[in-house]
Amino acid sequence: METTTENLEDKEIIMASITGEDKPGLTSSLASIIAKYGASILDIGQADIHNSLSLGIMFISDQTQSGNILKEMLFSSSEMGVQIRFSPVTKEEYNKWVSMQGKNRYIVTLLGRNISANLIANVSKVLAEQSLNIDSITRLTGRVPLTNDPNVHELTRASVEMSVRGTPKDKSLLQSEFMRLSREQGYDISFQEDNLYRRNRRLICFDMDSTLIQTEVIDELAIRAGVGDKVKAITESAMRGEIDFCESFKRRVSLLKGLDENVMKDIAENLPITEGAERTLRILKQYGYKIAILSGGFNYFGNYLKNKFNIDFVYANELEIVDGKLTGNYVGDIVDGKRKAELLKLIAQIENLNLQQVIAVGDGANDLPMLNCAGLGIAFHAKPKVKENAKQSISSIGMDGVLYLLGFKDSYIEEKK
């Protein structure tokens, strides 16, 4: 913005607030009037909600010219059918506003099937109690349809992004309050620092089972082998973090002994892809992200998804097969939680990326090491223990909630197609 420091005593600062139906050429007309009288624009902002305009222009002008500017802006606004209101701004008020520049900035993202007024009110209250100012509120998703059809509602998604400024009084308390609101109201609330890394992330690492796909493949194999209940019980215990992953992995694989390898092809071709996953993978590839699968599951299924969705890296476990039958053993090292974190760091190094540029998404206790070493770790429809220990979580909508945490807007996504 243009600024001036000469003869401030003879100048005044005025805030013009314009509301009404958005009209082409309105901003140009008002800015031209300000320029005509040699005034300088100090700040400008505009929002358009359902073709309803809210435009603010703060300018500084010579006191002798202010009357002419206000008169012409009022006349121009009247001609275009919008309302304009003027408010004086003291130099002290303006200097206080300037001093706030450079303060910590954060992004609060709200996710759900819809966004309620109660949620907005409660989130805003928490921010105010923490002395954080909301600078802007942006809707990231398309408009929610007016329908009572549960099938339509089930697939809708709504996301609102708040840009806030200041220093939280108690960051831990703020995050615990957001977790409480999420739990009580059934929404996801993300609180992220708004820094360079958030806008420049380049690698995303996904867990596979119960993350990219809506099943645990080892459970599917166990059902075909007639040991479904035994394997599922071990799986669930491991997911809750009750037993060591490597030990649970060995026990489960041993129960698959004798299963025909052709079963894997049938399971792979019928994998239930998680809601929003295909959209997320497609859009991230369009925007140049590298994508990896880091899984405690099996290579066979990871590579099937790699070919289907053009994924860049797959690291998972290898089942031993002899004479077309699973032996109940595995080949190589087990990809457990520790190994996932090591692989995430290795890929980041290969791609010359800072870990702050890396995203990790997973649902189980064995995903926590990679979630916590990534710049953005997201617990996806995860167990309570995992959600409590992850930086961010998504439980209310599908995988494309990841896009909104990254700041993608539906309108930009549609334009990219």
Structure description:
With 417 residues, the protein is α/β, with parallel strands linked by helices. The protein is built from 17 helices and 15 strands. It has helices at 26-36, 63-79, 91-99, 117-129, 150-155, 171-185, 217-225, 228-239, 245-254, 262-269, 277-286, 299-309, 337-350, 368-373, 384-389, 401-405, 410-416; strands at residues 11-21, 40-49, 52-62, 83-89, 105-112, 133-139, 158-165, 188-193, 203-206, 290-298, 313-322, 325-331, 358-362, 376-380, 392-394. α12 links the parallel β10 (290-298) and β11 (313-322).
This entry's quaternary arrangement is single chain
- The poorly predicted ranges are 1-6
Distance between the termini: 34 Å
Beta-strand content: 25-35%
Helicity level? 40-55%
Overall body shape? elongated
The major sheet is characterized as: 7 strands, mixed
Topology:
Blueprint: E1 11-21, H1 26-36, E2 40-49, E3 52-62, H2 63-79, E4 83-89, H3 91-99, E5 105-112, H4 117-129, E6 133-139, H5 150-155, E7 158-165, H6 171-185, E8 188-193, E9 203-206, H7 217-225, H8 228-239, H9 245-254, H10 262-269, H11 277-286, E10 290-298, H12 299-309, E11 313-322, E12 325-331, H13 337-350, E13 358-362, H14 368-373, E14 376-380, H15 384-389, E15 392-394, H16 401-405, H17 410-416
Helix pairs in contact: 1-2, 4-6, 7-8, 8-9
